[in-house]
Amino acid sequence: MASGYVYHELYGWHDTGTHARLAPADSRRGIQPYRHIENDDAKRRVHELVVATGLIDRLTRLTPRQATDEEILLVHTPGHLQRLVDANDTGGDGGDGGTPFGRGSVDIARLAAGGVIRAVEAVLDGEVDNAYALVRPPGHHAVPDSGMGFCLFGNIAIAVQAARRSRGVERVAVVDIDVHHGNGTQAVFYEDPAVLALSLHQDRMFPSDSGFLTERGAGAGFGYTLNLPLPPGTGNGGYLEAVRRVVLPALHRFRPDLVVVAAGFDASALDPLGRMMVTPKGYREIAKMVVGAAEELCDGRVVCAHEGGYDPAYVPFCANAVIEVLAGVEDPLDVPFGFDDLGQQELQPHQDAAIAAAEELLGDIG
Ligand SMILES: O=C(CCC1CCCC1)NO
Ligand SMILES: [Zn+2]
């Protein structure tokens, strides 16, 4: 099993400064400046754990490149790209007032999108069987004409469109397990039956006005967007049931040539921006199920692109668990604090109902 791994030190240099949205510093109102929650800590520490445990030696290092203007314009409007390029020397905001970036961050955002492109192309070319792209800034909220939710470019959407053009890949399934709705990916492929956009997320967390069951795609793409909003407090039991009863059947019906996972870890039990309870063991089981389906359907071609996840102590163990599954590690790292015994980790009736509602929608995937 050859597993690709994308990481670059520059991902840690994307400067998000102090928080522009959750805690706008204002000494007159007693609001101290606080570091932007989407900072390098959690993601850099994922890499450091992968290196320190020796897992890195079982991975094939893939060097990212910057996404070109042409590749970015497969998803984004010229106006969005130009606005970011113009602000690259000064720093600015991605477009929603809550996505600050520093000098040179647009180059790093190109490297993030390019890192996912590199991972996808390596998998499609058979250079590796699967891959993990530990990129930053994240991408799944970025829409064609704007950055959003800490995302500057739609990393996964750009990589999918670039691969369809360069490698002729036909059917791609995107499975978004970030706790927030993958609205950007959904927007890009909403009318496209060749891309199945699945998103499991906390109901009305962010964006609070998207990610509903009723958002199912449009035109030829109807049925190929499938949202599963889950109630706050959903833990391993609810997530594993959602994957088993919705994600896996959807993949088997869709029969993708490639599976891309929007690997956000803010559904974890310790995340400051989510209210879920998934643990490293839960993420390991999710990864096993998705990788298992990919092995049955598309020779195991899976690419994980890192998205959100903010607790710097816990995210490394969550992401490491997924990377271990990709690499076929038989003796996984024993996590010192798992929270697997939290009350109501098992499936709850109201979570079961949410899953059942999404199950009803599988019939339109054909
Ligand atoms: O992790 C994220 C970022 C969510 C935040 C964006 C603004 C408030 C919540 N998206 O997946
Ligand atoms: Zn998120």
UniProtKB/TrEMBL annotation:
Q: Would you kindly state one Gene Ontology biological process term found in this protein's UniProt entry? A: epigenetic regulation of gene expression
Pfam families from the xrefs?
A: Hist_deacetyl (PF00850)
Q: Name one GO molecular function term.
A: histone deacetylase activity
Q: Which GO terms describe its cellular component?
A: cytoplasm
Gene3D superfamilies cross-referenced by the UniProt entry: Histone deacetylase domain
User: Which residues are in the Histone deacetylase domain?
Assistant: 36-325
Q: Which InterPro entries match?
A: HDACs, His_deacetylse_dom, His_deacetylse_dom_sf, Ureohydrolase_dom_sf
Q: What family is it from?
A: Belongs to the histone deacetylase family.
**Mind telling me what this protein is named?**
Acetoin utilization deacetylase AcuC-like enzyme
Q: Which organism is it from?
A: Saccharothrix algeriensis
